[in-house]
Design goal:
Length: about 240
């Protein structure tokens, strides 16, 4: 491999790593949302700029995205040093300084934050489990599966789709049952199967969670395009 090919391969690996980092609230990769404003790799130095839909996006979510991007890029073979900067945000200085120092959220916002963000992260992964459940269930119902059977189905009995694997991944993140023999419908807090008597309530909550998540995603995409009108669909999907 030539030096130029190595640089290109490293850049592609960094971009792929950024594709594993999600907006916690929207449960979508930063790369597909258009949140990566710049990505460069030179002589083992990776430099990434992130942008968000508004100047006032919640700093806790922003911190998680910058920190996760830093960790993902730093783990790429061939990357010796990493810089991830949030741009055009009211808390950018504190977030960038804190992530670079590996200081954590509370230390980065000393006197303002009361703790770290793992419970917040888990809360939104649980929402992602509910939203993912609705996506899988809607496809099953559209294919003619009887609603009354849903409480008895296992993950392995569901057609192998991207949505099923996405749901499995989110459950795995929370330590919830995610094997082929585990129930399709589980409580996102406890991992216990959803009893038939709770089916309607559970599915209704899952539907509302998915609708809310997708509505927020649409709003954020539109606001980002208004804020950065030069962004095209191709750049957002780069």
């Amino acid at each position: 491999m030539t030096a130029l090919e190595e640089v290109r391969a490293c850049h592609a690996a960094v971009w792929q790593a950024l594709g594993t980092v999600r907006d916690p609230e929207l449960d979508e990769p930063l790369t597909s949302l258009g949140f990566v404003a710049r990505c460069a790799v030179e002589d083992g130095r990776a430099s990434v700029d992130l942008r968000l839909p508004t100047y006032f996006c919640a700093p806790n979510f922003a911190f998680l995205m910058v920190a996760d991007a830093y960790d993902a890029v730093s783990a790429v073979p061939g990357v010796a040093t990493t810089e991830v900067r949030l741009v055009d945000h009211f808390a950018a200085e504190a977030i960038n300084r804190g992530v670079a120092a590996r200081a954590g959220f509370a230390a980065s916002f000393e006197g303002e934050a009361t703790g770290e963000l793992e419970e917040l992260r888990a809360t939104f992964v649980r929402k992602a489990v509910l939203a993912g459940t609705d996506r899988v269930v809607r496809a099953l119902l559209a294919s003619g599966v009887d609603r009354a059977r849903l409480a008895d189905l296992t993950l392995g009995e569901v057609p192998a789709t991207a949505d099923r694997e996405r749901l499995r991944d989110r459950r795995r993140e929370l330590g919830l049952p995610c094997g082929d023999g585990d129930p399709l419908l589980v409580d996102p807090e406890t991992g216990q199967p959803v009893p038939a008597g709770e089916l309607a309530r559970h599915l209704g909550f899952a539907r509302l969670t998915r609708a809310s998540q997708e509505a927020n995603s649409g709003v954020c995409r539109d606001m980002l395009r208004v804020r950065y009108p030069h962004i095209g669909e191709q750049e957002g999907a780069r």
